[in-house]
Amino acid sequence: MSATFVIAQGGGPTAVINQTLVGAALEIRKRHPGARVLGARHGVRGIRDGDYVDLTDIREDQLRLIGRTPSSALGSTRDKPDAAYCDVILKGLQKAGADAFIYIGGNDTAGTQQILADASGGSIAFVHAPKTIDNDLEENDHTPGFISAAEFVAGAFLSVDLDFRALPGIYVGIVMGRHAGFLTAASAAWQLDEDSGPHLVYVPERAFEVSRFVDDVRATLDRHRRCIVAVSEGVSTADGKALVESLVPPERLERDAHGNVKLSGSDLTAALEQALATHLPGKRARVDALGYMPRGYVGAINPVDSEEAFNAGAFAAAVAGEGGGSVALQFDGRQTVLKKVPLDHVAGKTRHMPPDFMQADANRLAQPAYDYLKRLVPAKYQVGRPFV
Amino acid sequence: MSATFVIAQGGGPTAVINQTLVGAALEIRKRHPGARVLGARHGVRGIRDGDYVDLTDIREDQLRLIGRTPSSALGSTRDKPDAAYCDVILKGLQKAGADAFIYIGGNDTAGTQQILADASGGSIAFVHAPKTIDNDLEENDHTPGFISAAEFVAGAFLSVDLDFRALPGIYVGIVMGRHAGFLTAASAAWQLDEDSGPHLVYVPERAFEVSRFVDDVRATLDRHRRCIVAVSEGVSTADGKALVESLVPPERLERDAHGNVKLSGSDLTAALEQALATHLPGKRARVDALGYMPRGYVGAINPVDSEEAFNAGAFAAAVAGEGGGSVALQFDGRQTVLKKVPLDHVAGKTRHMPPDFMQADANRLAQPAYDYLKRLVPAKYQVGRPFV
C-alpha cells in the first residue's frame, strides 16, 4: 500500500504559511510517487473530525497559486490539545492510514507534535515545520512569516513617521507579540536618519513603566517635535503582569479560552491614550493597533520569506522520511540553512530577543538589532528626506 | 523682475501629494525659466511666518525622489483661516512677491483659496490642486490620493477576509472618512467571490443603527461562519449625530480645535466591541481602526495615482498663468482628463457617494460602486481560493 502524508496548519496565519504547505505537498509528490497527501482542515480539528482536502492530484500551478496566497488555506485552529485530545488525534491519524503528519506552526504546534510523537510509539513520523511572525522559536535564526510581517511593520512606521513630520504629534503603534519583541523592533528597520521614528520602542523583554513612558515621550517631543512609539502588545510591568492588566480594571479584562488576557482589544489602546491625555495634556496624540495587517497583508509578501517558507515545507517532507523532528532555519554566517532538530528543542519554548538588541539605558534599539534587521529586512523603498 | 510662485500643502497627507508638488514645481521651471519657486512649510503657516524652502534650483532627480515619497514633504497644517488670518496670509504673499499661490489640498484648502482670491482683488493668481483620500471633492471623478488609499483598504480587507476564513469570527475594520464613504466602499474592491468579505459596509451617507448592525452581523455569521465588516469612522445615527456621539458619554467625547468630535480614537472601537460583546456574547470579535495606514503606506503607492497627481500639479502651474481656479480630475467616458473649474464649485463643498452605490435594502455595495471601483482600483494581486 502507498504511503499517506497528512499536513495541517496551526495557530495564527502568516503571509507565507501556504508556501510551506505547498512546498511539503510538492516534495512529497516528487519523493513518493503514488503517495496520498491529505490536508486536514482547521489543524488537528480536521484530523479529529476526519475532514480532509485531498491534495494528491491538485494541479501544480493551482497549488503554487495557493502558495502565493496569504493566510492558512487549510484553515487553522487555536486548539492546544491535552493528552486526551492527542489520543483522539492519534486515532484519527491511524484511521486515515497516516505514515507521517507534518504540522506547520509555532511553539505550541511543536508541543502538540511532541506529545503525539511520545504517544505514538514511533509508528507515525511527526514533523514540525516552523511558522510565526513572532520570530520566537528556539533553534531558529528567524522563522518563516517573520520577514514579511517585519517588512509590513517597517513600512508602516516609515510611513507614519513621514505623516507626523508633516503634522506633528504623538503616535503610538501597538504591534503583535506576546513574549518576544522582534516584530516590534522591526518598526525601526527602515529609519531614514537620526531624526527618524520610531523614537521609542517598548518590547516584552523589558519591564514597562507608565511614568517612564511618559517621560520618554516628553523628552522626545522636546527633541524631535514629534514622537513615534512602537509598543509590543505583550509589554509587562515589573511585577510580570501584562500592561493591560495594570491599566484596566480586573472586571473589564477579557480572557481567551486558555485564560490568557486578551492583549490587543481597545483596552490597551484606550489606556495608553488616557495616560498621554492625563500626563501630556493638549498634545495631539493617536494610539493605533496595527492589528492583523502585519501577519497577512497581501501587499507585503517578501520573496525571500516566500522561498524560505517553501523550502522549509520541502525539507519537512524529507524529515518525514527520517522519523520526524522539527525543521529549523539557521544562519551559517553567510546564508540561511535548513536543519532537522529534536522536537523538544522547540516545543513550548520561547526565544526572546537577545538582551544586547536594546540600548541599556534607553528604549531604543542597539546596533546588534539593526545589524540583524538589516540582514533580514533590507530597505525596500527609496524615499526622499522631507523639507520639514 | 522674474515671477514668483508659492506652493503649499494642506490637510491630511496622502501617498502621492508630493507628486503634485513636484509636478507643479517642474512645470513652473519649464514654463517660466528664471522664475522663483518657493515652498511654504506647513501650509499657510509658512506664508504667515515667512518660512519657505527654495525649490528653484533643487536638482530634478532630487525633486522626483521627493515625488515618490509619501506624505507632505513641505509639512502640512489643519488651520482653516478666517478672514483675519487670510489677511495675514495675503500680506505674507505680497511680502514674498508672489504672483501665484498653488495650494494642494481638499475642500477646506479650496475654501482658503476662495477667500484669498476674493480678498486679493486679482493681483495674485490662486490655484487649488486637488488632494484627498476621502475622494469627496465636487467636480472630480476621483481625487489624487484616493486610488492609493483605496488600494491599501482593498488589500487590507482581502487579507483580513483570508485570515478570518482560517480562524472564523467577527472582524470590524474602521476606515477614515468623515462625510463620504468612498474609501470604506473600497474595502469590497478585491472580493474574490460571493463568499468574500467585507460582508457588510457602513458608510456616512446612510444612517447607522446599532440594532440593525447587530442583526446584520448575526445573519452574516449564520450564512458565512465569519463576518467581515467595514465601517466608516464618520457613520452617523438617524438624528445626524456621529455614531461615536451616540455610544460614548458626552463627558468622554474628544473634540478638535474646530469643535469636531474626534472620530477615530479608541472610543468608537471600544463602543463597537461592547455592542458585539453584549448582543453576540461568546463570539470571537475584533475591532480595529485601520488608522493612518491607508493615506500614506509606502507599500501601496499606485502608479496611476502617482502620475495623475503629478499631472494635476503640472496643470495647476498652467492654471496659475490663467488667473487661477481649481484643478479637477474628470472622466470623459474613456480616460481621466484635467479641467480648470471655478474655486467656488469645490470650496467647502462635499461630494457624497451616489445613492445607487449601495444596495437599497442591505448594507452592501451595488453594481455601480463595483463598476467604479473596478475602473479605478483593478485587482492587483493574484490569489487562490482557500480550501475552507
Question: Which secondary structure elements does this structure contain, and how are they paired or packed?
Answer:
Two copies of one chain form a homodimer.
Chain A: E1 4-9, H1 17-31, E2 36-40, H2 44-49, E3 52-54, H3 60-67, H4 83-95, E4 100-105, H5 107-120, E5 125-130, H6 146-166, E6 170-175, H7 182-185, E7 200-202, H8 210-224, E8 227-232, H9 243-247, H10 266-279, E9 285-289, H11 293-296, H12 303-320, E10 324-331, E11 336-341, H13 367-376
Parallel strand pairs in A: 1-2, 1-4, 4-5, 5-10, 6-8, 6-9, 7-8
Antiparallel strand pairs in A: 2-3, 10-11
Helix pairs in contact in A: 1-3, 1-12, 4-5
Explain what the structure shows.
The structure is a homodimer of 388-residue chains. With 388 residues, the first copy, chain A, is of the alpha/beta class. The first copy, chain A, has two domains: 4-145 and 298-345, Rossmann fold; 148-295 and 353-376, Rossmann fold. Chain A has helices at 17-31, 44-49, 60-67, 83-95, 107-120, 146-166, 182-185, 210-224, 243-247, 266-279, 293-296, 303-320, 367-376; strands spanning 4-9, 36-40, 52-54, 100-105, 125-130, 170-175, 200-202, 227-232, 285-289, 324-331, 336-341. In chain A, the strands form two sheets. Chain A has a seven-stranded mixed sheet, with helices on both faces. A four-stranded parallel sheet of chain A has the order 7-8-6-9, sandwiched between helices. At the A-B interface, helix 3, helix 6, helix 10, strand 9 and helix 11 of A face helix 3, helix 6, helix 10, strand 9 and helix 11 of B.
